[in-house]
Specification:
This protein is α+β, with helices and mostly antiparallel strands. Among the domains are: about 20-300, Distorted Sandwich (Beta-galactosidase, Chain A, domain 5); about 820-914, Maltose phosphorylase, domain 3. The chain has an eleven-stranded antiparallel sheet with strand order 1-2-8-9-10-11-23-17-14-13-20, with helices on one face. Strands 6, 7, 12, 18, 19, 21 and 22 form a seven-stranded antiparallel sheet that branches. β39 (about 710) and β40 (about 715) form a beta hairpin. It is globular, with a radius of gyration of 30 Å. The structure holds 1-O-phosphono-alpha-D-glucopyranose. 1-O-phosphono-alpha-D-glucopyranose (G1P) binds near residues 365, 379, 746, 789 and 805. InterPro entries: 6-hairpin_glycosidase_sf (IPR008928), 6hp_glycosidase-like_sf (IPR012341), Gal_mutarotase_sf_dom (IPR011013), GH65_N (IPR037018), GH94_catalytic (IPR033432), GH94_Enzymes (IPR052047), Glyco_hydrolase_94_b-supersand (IPR010383).
Length: about 900
Amino acid sequence: MNHDHKIKSGWSFTGNNGDFRLEQPDRSSFLYFPLVNEGGMMSSVSPKLHGQVTSGHNTFLTPPLSVEDLHNSRASRNFWVYIAGQGAWSATGDSARQNAAVYGEAADESLLEAGLLWHKVTRENKELGLNAQITSFVPCGNDKVELMKVVLTNSGTKELTLTPTAAIPLYARSADDLRDHRHVTSLLNRIYTSAYGVEVQPALSFDERGHRVNHTSYGVFGAAEGGAQPVGFFPVQEEFIGEGGSLDWPEAVVRNLAPEIGEGGGRVKEGYEALGGLRFAEITLAPGQSHSYVVVLAIENDRIGVPVLMAKYGSTAAFDALLEENKTFWAEKVNTVEFHTGDHSADEWMKWVTLQPVLRRLYGNSFLPYHDYGRGGRGWRDLWQDCLALLIMEPADVRSLLLNNYAGVRIDGSNATIIGQQPGEFIADRNNIPRVWMDHGAWPFLTTMLYLDQSGDLDFLLQEQTYFRDSFMSRCKERDTSWEPAAGSSLRTAAGEVYTGTILEHILLQNLVPFFNVGEHNNILLEGADWNDGLDMAAQRGESVTFTAFYASNLLDLSRLLITLKERTGGDTLELAEEMTLLLDSLGESVDYESITAKHALLDRFYATAPNKVSGVRAQLKLEQVAEDLARKAEWIFAHLRRNEWVDSGHGDGWFNGYYNNDGERVEGEFAGGTRMTLTGQVFPLLGHAAAPEQIASIVSAVERNLFDDKIGYRLNSNFGGIQQNLGRAFGFAFGHKENGAMFSHMTVMYGNALYKRGFVKEGRKVLDSLYSLSADFEVSRMYPGIPEYINEQGRGMYTYLTGSASWMLLTMVTEVFGVKGKLGDLLLQPKLVKEQFDAEARASIKTIFAGRELKVVYTATGSAEYGEYQIHAVKLNGAEVTLQRVSEGVLISRSLLSALPEGQVHLLEVELA
Ligand code: G1P
């Protein structure tokens, strides 16, 4: 991606692996970097080695924190050096003295270097002549371990005598105990010292699970260069910091006190806040000389086998080897997709975006400093969004994931919202919070359609799956008092058998029920909220017009899919739970779609016929008739929306109203107090078929006028003023923040995607480029490479790393910008690259997986490189000319041609544009 204005990036990329460097990283607040593995270790690290280390909500090694604590807390992974004659200095920069010097002359110089997924800070104090380099990573594999290597170098001219001490607080318990009995739970601590460090195994765990015997252990261990053990230990925090001291000015270091527990450890302390306090032997460094230390942070299910752990991780040789292994591991993961355009930095930036969906899979929406909520689980919406990226990055696993996910659908078209650890495991809500997010039913088909296009696997639709059942029915409006948890959470037939239906049946149900579940303006009810979790105060009368558009587009696409199914399989009929035929009203007694009461009556009849159970009898329906019914519903909605929900701005353009509030009032339009407009309201009509082609330019113009802000990009909404108690908590947020008028990446990327889809490439490009430019403008965004959840009023990138927008960005780059996408299994090439995306040789390329093969698609513009002026002229596969099969969108390459290629190598598709 190119950009017109020069980006004064604080960081810059240093190679081709996503590696970057940033000077004085500690002069920017709120920065943190993720370190994680598939074994469940989840860390974050700031430039001063703050952050947290945990393997879950109940097992924090360090104190759980929120982003403010990164600079305000004194607890960190500290590594102290007592310099004879000079006093205490922190190699992580975290001493009271260094913190006080931050704006002055005597401040340390620091440099951050980082890559996939490692973090290195070099800090030097010129006056002292001391340099410290600290590298951190979480080794890939199944161990819950984080490693740190500290190299101290005499960078001055005089000999230095140093006494190093690692000091990492061991919180060792559940996040719940931070506020609830923090002190009492410290009394549970059993703190062991041994040859290499300190280990804590609390006797009991006090958290929401009750008071139970605890087995989990937490430890900090270390060794000096050559394997030398620490010479003493400070296992108790209060003894280390001293009376009146603190973690950033600890008496034991400042006064260079000898540890009470000497070499070899062996002593046990009980009932205090613990510290991984490791004293290393005094050393003398001549100018230019270095000495290194490895520190291991570990969480284990039971007591830690320290000798084994240290043999594996506790040496510089092991550290260096594992670091290389780790770099390779992450590079391979990310490099399944690679972009090459005329802007190298933008391509490198995309590597970090590509990593983000993986991070979201590993952290959920919790455990990074901004994500100071939740317990690590993922929501229903995220489950489906994450699959979008997986379809690009790890396509082999997606089929079974999708199949499993459908087991969460209830017979009323809603779904389970508590998602278990295992794929396909959904848990009944025992907290009794009856809530339906009305958008939930719309996403699965979008993701499934992408899967069908990428794979051509239409059989998937006919695969059977169970349904979810708990005590909620009729979209949480009624309770099934007969249901007991012991009865299990699978839907059963009248005869008590577990009922299964096809995936197609699940999808139809999810999209048909909402059609009837309308509010007083005949749009689908907002219920608990839609995509915008913050629109949660209009459950009675609120309507989501924008998701009405989404559901309608699904109905039309489903209708077309049924026709394809008929053509491809030769099948003529479709089997559905007999109760569902009610929802296909035109097959029997047609309902007047203008009549809200008639729609409600039908829905009530359906709920009564399938009250948390089904008969088990299936009806055979003609595919064609079902398809007609769906199309009829879709067309009705499109006409309804275009007629009733179009806002004429009076400025020569217009847009779609997105919502009705809980007082039944239209939310968007020109009001006395100003313009009220949402981006969400535009995205779903554009993404599907609801916005008529002639409306698109008008919407684009209204968005530019009302929502685009040079400083922060495309806002989620204009300033409504007031707190909108009849709409949702989002409007309680200050304007320009999060779900109230910030640039919310997820919606912005979807807007960009929609514009590309509708052929508004220049406009779409501007949208995607704004995301890159804003995120990469470090002076303002103050974030590392990647896409943030949102950009706030000041332009700062917020909630970095964990956001569904990354999946959408990746998807949009591959399938829209580069136009490499499936069409029911065949490969469609439909590039929408603009001139500045081609390099100096007029080339742009992408490496991606399709049909189980790694493909490198290289576009070369032999004539104009401007979108709209070129066409695919010729295609060569591994050097051999491919006979072009032109379709309206571009060029099709048949799947059979690709799947005949050998696996395990990259195949070259050279595409000439002229
Ligand atoms: C987050 C949630 C997403 C929700 C959105 C708007 O966005 O994860 O499910 O739709 O807020 O409320 P994300 O951080 O994924 O971009």
